[in-house]
């Protein structure tokens, strides 16, 4: 199972929270909360930053190993964009509407180029030209098979001004008979060239394009997959727990955990002077901590530490000077 923290460096270096997103924006069925954003702001040549956003989206979703996915791409509110904002005649926009039920790749864009009623309109040609250019770039990035031009897609947030896209997971044959996990899109984004200017007193326009990864939804999917395969969901990276069966052994536990920390081993203990051993062992089982080291009076006398496997409950006595090496060996084999 992939570690969710190990996403592409460019994505985790992006803007956190709702930066460049209007406060209180709500969009049912779209990624809008508990998300990780990536945005590119500035004046650049057409479709280059848009293509990189799609590439980053593909890298993240592929790296998370959630399954096969498809990124649907369209224009924002097709007919309204074409008539009210782009100045197209209604009959031209209606012709575009004939394509709303179609989806595909660059061949669909080429087909629209050949339509005489569209090819005679300057604005339509400019839009189609941008889409064709975008497909050229995503082909060079090696992700064209993950992109589908789908005019039926319409993002709900009103600040989008151009290309919009959403990523959805594709069901496997095995999942067809299972209860579907209705999480909607797991990533989404688009171009919003007018949003920044709304917050600038002088109205300076800053072209922007970005994407959001639905972290909360991805966690739901990962959790569901782990339950399906009977895997325990770990909420900690702790590798070793330091325990004692007797009272007044806090100092020994602290010395021991310091040794483990100094060796780069992820260890923890209960912040109590005299916790019960059963309480400590139950904590390890509940948290999925794989190993426990136990120090008590008998261990101190013999110069050993007990090393316990939480899964099998087997215990072995290890010489104190060999403990770190033995733990590292076991962790490398797990």
Automatic annotation (TrEMBL):
<dbReference type="InterPro" id="IPR041715">
    <property type="entry name" value="HisRS-like_core"/>
</dbReference>
<dbReference type="GO" id="GO:0006412">
    <property type="term" value="P:translation"/>
</dbReference>
<feature type="binding site">
    <location>
        <position position="39"/>
    </location>
    <ligand>
        <name>L-histidine</name>
    </ligand>
</feature>
<keyword id="KW-0067">ATP-binding</keyword>
<keyword id="KW-0648">Protein biosynthesis</keyword>
<dbReference type="InterPro" id="IPR045864">
    <property type="entry name" value="aa-tRNA-synth_II/BPL/LPL"/>
</dbReference>
<feature type="domain" description="Anticodon-binding">
    <location>
        <begin position="239"/>
        <end position="330"/>
    </location>
</feature>
<keyword id="KW-0436">Ligase</keyword>
<dbReference type="InterPro" id="IPR004516">
    <property type="entry name" value="HisRS/HisZ"/>
</dbReference>
<dbReference type="GO" id="GO:0005737">
    <property type="term" value="C:cytoplasm"/>
</dbReference>
<feature type="binding site">
    <location>
        <begin position="159"/>
        <end position="160"/>
    </location>
    <ligand>
        <name>L-histidine</name>
    </ligand>
</feature>
<dbReference type="Pfam" id="PF03129">
    <property type="entry name" value="HGTP_anticodon"/>
</dbReference>
<dbReference type="InterPro" id="IPR033656">
    <property type="entry name" value="HisRS_anticodon"/>
</dbReference>
<dbReference type="GO" id="GO:0005524">
    <property type="term" value="F:ATP binding"/>
</dbReference>
<feature type="binding site">
    <location>
        <position position="155"/>
    </location>
    <ligand>
        <name>L-histidine</name>
    </ligand>
</feature>
<dbReference type="InterPro" id="IPR036621">
    <property type="entry name" value="Anticodon-bd_dom_sf"/>
</dbReference>
<keyword id="KW-0030">Aminoacyl-tRNA synthetase</keyword>
<protein>
    <recommendedName>
        <fullName>histidine--tRNA ligase</fullName>
        <ecNumber>6.1.1.21</ecNumber>
    </recommendedName>
</protein>
<dbReference type="GO" id="GO:0004821">
    <property type="term" value="F:histidine-tRNA ligase activity"/>
</dbReference>
<comment type="similarity">
    <text>Belongs to the class-II aminoacyl-tRNA synthetase family.</text>
</comment>
<keyword id="KW-0547">Nucleotide-binding</keyword>
<dbReference type="Pfam" id="PF13393">
    <property type="entry name" value="tRNA-synt_His"/>
</dbReference>
<dbReference type="InterPro" id="IPR004154">
    <property type="entry name" value="Anticodon-bd"/>
</dbReference>
<feature type="domain" description="Class II Histidinyl-tRNA synthetase (HisRS)-like catalytic core">
    <location>
        <begin position="78"/>
        <end position="218"/>
    </location>
</feature>
């Amino acid at each position: 199972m992939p570690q969710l923290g190990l996403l592409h460096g460019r994505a985790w270096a992006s803007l956190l929270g709702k930066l460049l997103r209007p406060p209180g924006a709500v969009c049912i069925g779209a990624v809008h909360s508990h998300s990780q954003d990536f945005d590119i702001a500035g004046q650049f040549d057409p479709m280059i930053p848009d293509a990189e956003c799609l590439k980053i989206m593909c890298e993240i979703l592929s790296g998370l190993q959630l399954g096969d996915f498809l990124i649907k791409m369209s224009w924002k509110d097709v007919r309204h964009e074409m008539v009210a904002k782009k100045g197209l005649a209604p009959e031209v926009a209606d012709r575009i509407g004939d394509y709303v039920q179609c989806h595909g790749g660059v061949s669909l864009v080429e087909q629209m180029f050949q339509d005489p009623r569209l090819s005679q309109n300057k604005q339509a040609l400019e839009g189609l030209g941008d889409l064709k250019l975008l497909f050229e770039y995503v082909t060079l990035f090696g992700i064209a098979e993950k992109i589908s031009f789908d005019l039926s897609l319409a993002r709900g947030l009103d600040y989008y001004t151009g290309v919009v896209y959403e990523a959805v997971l594709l069901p496997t044959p095995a999942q067809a008979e299972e209860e579907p996990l209705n999480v909607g899109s797991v990533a989404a984004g688009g171009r919003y060239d007018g949003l920044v200017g709304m917050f600038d007193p002088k109205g300076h326009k800053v072209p922007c394009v970005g994407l959001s990864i639905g972290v909360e939804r991805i966690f739901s999917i990962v959790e569901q997959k782990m339950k399906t395969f009977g895997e325990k969901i770990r909420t900690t990276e702790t590798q070793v727990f330091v325990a004692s069966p007797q009272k007044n052994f806090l100092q020994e536990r602290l010395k021991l955990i310091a040794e483990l920390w100094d060796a780069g081993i992820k260890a923890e203990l209960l912040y109590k002077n005299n916790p019960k051993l059963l309480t400590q062992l139950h904590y390890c089982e509940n948290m999925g901590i794989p190993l426990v080291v136990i120090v008590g009076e008998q261990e101190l006398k013999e110069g050993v530490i007990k090393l316990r496997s939480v899964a099998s409950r087997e215990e072995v006595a290890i010489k104190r000077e060999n403990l770190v090496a033995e733990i590292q060996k076991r962790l490398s084999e797990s």
